[in-house]
Amino acid sequence: MPPPVKPTGDRAPVVIVDDVHVEYKVFATGKRPSAADRKSLKLRGRGKQMRTVHALKGVSFTAKQNDSIGIIGTNGSGKSTLMRAIAGLTPTSSGAIYSQSRPSLLGVGAALLKDLSGERNVILGGLAMGFTMEEIEERYDEVVSFAGIEKFIDLPMRAYSSGMTARLKFAIASMATHEILIVDEALAVGDRKFRQRSEARIRDIRDNAGTVFLVSHSMQSIKDTCSRVIWLDQGTLIMDGDPDEVIREYHKAQDK
Ligand SMILES: Nc1ncnc2c1ncn2[C@@H]1O[C@H](COP(=O)(O)OP(=O)(O)OP(=O)(O)O)[C@@H](O)[C@H]1O
After folding, report:
1. Residue ranges of the ABC transporter domain (predicted)?
2. How far does the centroid of ligand 1 lie from the alpha carbon of residue 81, in Å?
3. What residues form DSSP beta bridges with 25?
4. Is 81 in the pocket of ligand 1 (CB under 6 A)?
């Protein structure tokens, strides 16, 4: 009989991104294309041109248990596209993404119902995440005080500032325990105190064997929460490693 396989002590892979490409096909209208553009673009329909934006070009990496991975890169480098692909919201054009459980994407754009009060949104968000009314009641006060919006909780969310909305969204999402949590710039709109609280929450998730992806333009938030950083540029993975090292190289490239 073969000896039992010994655990290697390595952390388990949670998300595998294997040579992922994402292409968006968009119809561009309006501006008349230049002669050079006309040569390189396929013209379809009446004056409409179909353009392909190659947002991710063969990205590969493996995220493990307890990783908290910061994703950095200039505007349009493919960060949100990569997160949406991992969350299963944007299809890949080629390559594959395997994940151990369903990742939750927490982004500034995630849906809350603007015409309903904060209170209703907490309840709806809780139900959507599979909590019973009783479980939501138990957590309700903590969610509202974490978001720090006690005075506004009975007002429609239309009346909230973008920072207040982001705080409530983060508080609702963090009611649940996430094995894989993706936070896309949600922290950027909160104030300093809230940012510290939510960063602590991210560290908690990571310490409880979860895996966190954090997209941010704030290198401080990344340094404070991430154990690893991936730098994307024009859809290509440039560097993947220690936060200080990757951020140093990223800044060097920016200064050129
Ligand atoms: N729905 C879409 N349709 C067409 N093109 C898109 C779409 N979403 C993103 N793109 C394009 O894909 C590329 C990558 O965009 P993405 O939003 O992933 O970048 P990002 O790194 O998150 O940028 P930012 O820092 O500005 O948020 C850009 O060129 C963008 O114009």
Report:
1. 41-256
2. 6
3. 52
4. yes
Q: Does the beta carbon of 26 lie inside 6 Å of ligand 1?
A: yes
Under the banding of pLDDT at 50, 70 and 90, the label for residue 57 is very high
| Residue 7 located in a structural domain | no
Domains held by the chain: number: 1
Instruction: Enter the ipTM.
Output: 0.97
What CA–CA distance (Å, rounded) separates 187 from 215? 9
CA-nearest residue for atom 19, ligand 1, is 76
Cα–Cα distance between 63 and 71 in angstroms, integer? 12
**207 lies in a domain?**
yes
**What is the per-residue pLDDT for 33?**
59
Kindly give the pairing relationship between strand 104-107 and strand 68-72: unpaired
- Strands in 236-241's sheet, in edge-to-edge order, are 104-107, 180-184, 211-215, 68-72, 228-233, 236-241
Say how far apart CA 61 and CA 41 lie, in whole Å: 33
Mean pLDDT is lowest, of 41-55, 160-174, 237-251, for 41-55
pLDDT per residue over 86-100, tens digit each?
999 899 999 999 999
Parent domain of 93: 13-255
Band (155; pLDDT cuts 50, 70, 90): very high
What is d(CA 175, CA 205) in angstroms, rounded to the nearest whole number?
11
Instruction: Summarize pLDDT for 64-76 with one digit per residue, the tens.
Output: 998 999 999 999 9
Report the separation in Å between the CA atom of 107 and the middle of ligand 1, taken as the mean of its atom positions.
14
From the number of C-beta atoms within 10 Å of its C-beta (0-12, 13-18, 19+), residue 172 rates as buried
Which CATH number characterizes residue 217's domain? 3.40.50.300
